[in-house]
Amino acid sequence: MTTLTQPAAPPIAWTEPVPGARLACADWFVAAQAIERGSIDLVYVDPPYNTGRVRTDRAGAFDDAWPTMDDYIDWLRVRLGVTIPLLRDTGSILLHLDARASHLARIVLDDLLGAECFVNHLIWSYGLGGSSARRFARKHDDILFYCIDPEKYWFEPPLVPATSRRLSGQMKKATDVLDIPAINNMAKERVGWPTQKPLALLDLLVRACCPEGGVVLDPCLGSGTTIVAAISASRDTIGVDRNAEAVKLASSRLFSLTGSP
User: Fold this and answer.
1) Long-range contacts of 103-111 (CB under 8 A, 24+ apart)
2) 49-91 tens-digit pLDDT
3) Is there a domain that residue 13 lies in?
4) Which of 19, 98, 128, 136 is deepest in the core (most CB within 10 A)?
């Protein structure tokens, strides 16, 4: 009987554009298998959302369509399954999706980690975007926060400006609704990637969920905001994207941040 074997995954070509940052142009699934287990403190994933179209902007483009929602969730499940073992027992994962898939992804994470490892369902309220005559205007994304061990996971509550008159000028602990504006077309930090998230959002999440000196992994690198936030906050970081333009853009942002040649 002939035994069929899976071809070996191609080796990952890691680059280190600045100290503390490793980047690779590779598929999330392949790259996760090349990272040491138990070496990551925080995984932040902002994957494609299965919008059914090609997402484009001046800096890059990517295909964001699967045949069915089931196919998309299966794709997500397989990659989350090989990524979760990379986390330390004090580690956490943040999965950033929109309302069309977040409820399904929560079931996947409950299956992979256990419902007891659920920490928060965060709402990123961003304000920008269109409206519709057929539904309430969609003005938020969902970020699912899960931990590896409910008794051990690292967390430092972020502080945000208080909005009440009584606490005017003071800071308070952030709630599970993060009111942070999206990047508008004229924003200085805009780099032209179609799904770029604001640095203020990633800075808050990285500082809250990864200890200083820890390691942040973003396996869907996109515009590179996660790794910029990590390096700025004195965390090491690993970034992966199958799109070479995304990796190039992320490297460029790190060069600008550190003054590297």
Assistant:
1) 104/69, 104/73, 105/73, 105/76, 105/144, 106/144, 108/73, 108/76, 108/77, 108/80, 109/80, 109/144, 109/146, 111/77
2) 999 999 998 888 988 999 999 999 999 999 999 999 999 999 9
3) no
4) 98
Q: Looking at the domain assignment, is residue 12 inside a domain?
A: no
Q: Cβ–Cβ contacts within 10 Å for residue 123, how many?
A: 17
C-alpha–C-alpha distance, residues 38 and 111, integer Å: 20
9, part of any domain? no
* CATH code of the domain in which 158 resides: 3.40.50.150
pTM value > 0.85? yes
Residues 6+ apart with CB under 8 A from 120: 143, 144, 145, 176
Q: Name the residue type at position 50.
A: N
Flag whether 182 is in a domain. yes
d(CA 172, CA 163): 9
